[in-house]
Structure formats: structure tokens, C-alpha cells
Amino acid sequence: MTNRPFPTLRTARLVLRPRTPDDAVTLFAAFADVEAMRYWSTGPHETVEQTHAYLAQDMPDWRAWAITLSGDDRAIGFVSVGEDWKGNVSEIGYMLLRAHWRRGIVAEAVSAVIEQVFAEGQRRLYADTDPENTGSRALLEGLGFKLEGVLRAEWETHIGVRDTALYGLLPDDWSAARAEKIERTRRKVA
């Protein structure tokens, strides 16, 4: 992804800008949160320095946007996208501070990133999540991702060996999900 654009993205409530290691100061609250980190590949962070080191990792095939509220540059979460070896196929992931859960912020942020990567010509996005992570699964399904399968004993994590639910999204799926959302909104107003 090093050749891909990395623009600042704007939505009605959010600004998504490139995430930096300095975002560790505010994102530590999420990385230290036992519940938020339950299904992450590593356990909760114990220090801000640990979060800083995590955010400073050199990952040339990944872009990570810090989620900020319009008018406030402090990171409250992030959305990351990594291009895999197949080219024009990317994995997407996200995290949000618990204080901002259940407000539609992650869906809004992930939607903006989906728009960006499909506009760049990506042919497929995928996400993997623990089958027990019902919040993440509902988010993905609400955005039009399709469950493509469960990989058994895929990850060895801080909570043991875990399966992964693999979700995929194609541009046509995304267009259909957006059209469905517009229709639901139209029916509510009518």
C-alpha cells in the first residue's frame, strides 16, 4: 500500500487522519481496556510506552487512520487497512475507545475508509474476527460484509487458540448495502 494515497477523510461527525505513534497517549485507554482487547491478538497493554511501540511498528503494507471527532484532533480510535500479497485485496480492522461505543462512530469511520479503498480500485476487502465477538460481527454484517467461513484454530492469542470468522466485501456488496440503508432511511421519514 505504500503507493496508495493516504488522504484525510471527512464524514458528518469525524475526521480520519493518518494515525501516528503520538496517538498512543489517547489510544492507550482502548489498548489497556480488558473488554476492548478481549478479541485482539495480544492482551491489554500495561503502559503507554507499550501502546506507543505498537503504533510505531513499521508496517509498509498498512495504512491506519486515526478516528477523531470534528474539531478535536485527539484520536478516539482507528481504522487500518493492509493490502495482502494478492494485490487489490485488503484486510480491514478497527478499534474505538469504549466511551464512544454504540454511537455509530465505527460504522461511520469504516464506511469512509471502504469508500476510499474501493475508489482506489480495490476489488475485495476482508475482515476476520473472533466468532464470539458479536459486536464486530454485527458491524461487519451491517456494512454489507458476507460471512465466508470459519477458520478453526486459526489464531493463538492471549485467551488461547481461537477460531476466526472470515468476512468479505466486494464493491457490489457495498453498493447494495448503501442502497438498502438509503431505502430504510427513506421509509423511516415517510
Give the CATH architecture: 3-Layer(aba) Sandwich
Q: Give the strand line-up of the largest sheet.
A: 1-2-3-4-5-6-8-7
End-to-end gap: 43 Å
> Which sequence of SSEs, written as H and E, runs from N to C?
EEHHHEEEHEHEEH
According to CATH, the homologous superfamily is Gcn5-related N-acetyltransferase (GNAT)
- Report the principal-axis shape: globular
* Low-pLDDT residue spans: none
Whole-number radius of gyration? Answer: 16 Å
Estimated helix fraction: 25-40%
Q: What is the level 1 CATH name?
A: Alpha Beta
Give me the number of helical elements. Answer: 6
**Mean pLDDT rating:** 93
Task: Give the strand tally.
Answer: 8
CATH topology (level 3) name: Aminopeptidase
Protein name: RimJ/RimL family protein N-acetyltransferase
InterPro entries: Acyl_CoA_acyltransferase, GNAT_dom, N-acetyltransferase
Pfam families: Acetyltransf_3
Organism: Sphingomonas yantingensis
